[in-house]
Write a structure and sequence with these properties.
heterodimer, A: 113 residues, mainly beta, six-stranded mixed sheet, five-stranded antiparallel sheet, 11 strands, B: 112 residues, seven-stranded mixed sheet, globular
């Protein structure tokens, strides 16, 4: 079946790196995404990785994909208080990149000054 | 930068009433979606829409739900007879033929 799991909570100090982990079950996933949700707001697309890639870096964000273990991680370097939010991992199910998204339950990142 | 918009931002309705949630997807996008997020729970897929028809729907999307693209810009979700358990944040999303999925800010539906 389709399932995405994340740890629920992560607390870090400002300036440290944050690593948010995610596991998924569907091996046919083509794209995997990270979305950010600030309190009371919608889902903001942060970054994504195509399933045939191992790593993608985008400024302070690094996405690592271990397809064998179906494990995805998001590393935020030099975490700032403005990074405090809920981070959702999602996999795209369906042909190409046109299918529905299956979300994890979200990881709340708390950044302490 | 183009964005998905949704109205209203918050809708309060009584149980049994019909509600229509409205979305304006990004103009050149071809795929449209509705998701919902019950407070404290996962974001759940409801329905996808392409080429003026439903392409996939989840078990949640029963006969009480319907979607429509009444004109070239709007995409609506109708709930015919709301239940308490329909209270949630409803997100609309859209994407190009093969591109990233962009979400609107959501409509918070409260059924009393």
């Amino acid at each position: 079946g389709e399932d995405v799991e994340q740890s629920l909570f992560l607390s870090v100090r400002e300036g440290d790196s944050s690593v948010i982990n995610c596991t998924y079950t569907d091996s046919s996933s083509t794209y995997l995404y990270w979305y950010k949700q600030e309190p009371g707001a919608g889902l903001q697309l942060l970054t994504y990785i195509f399933s045939n890639m191992d790593m993608k870096q985008d400024q302070r964000l690094t996405v690592l994909l271990n397809k064998k273990d179906k494990h995805l991680s998001l590393r935020i370097a030099d975490t700032q208080t403005g990074d405090s939010a809920i981070y959702f991992c999602a996999e795209s199910i369906g042909p190409g990149n046109t299918g529905k998204l299956i979300f994890g339950q979200g990881t709340t990142l708390q950044v302490k000054p | 930068e183009p964005e998905v918009t949704q109205t209203p931002s918050h809708q309060v309705t009584q149980m049994g009433q019909e509600v229509i949630l409205r979305c304006v997807p990004i103009s050149n996008h071809l795929y449209f979606y509705w998701y919902r997020q019950i407070l404290g729970q996962k974001v759940e897929f409801l329905v996808s829409f392409y080429n003026n028809e439903i392409s996939e729907k989840s078990e949640i999307f029963d006969d009480q739900f319907s979607v429509e693209r009444p004109d070239g810009s709007n995409f609506t979700l109708k709930i015919r007879s709301t239940k308490l358990e329909d209270s949630a944040m409803y997100f609309c999303a859209s994407r190009e033929l093969a591109g990233d999925e962009y979400f609107g800010p959501g409509t918070r539906l409260t059924v009393t």
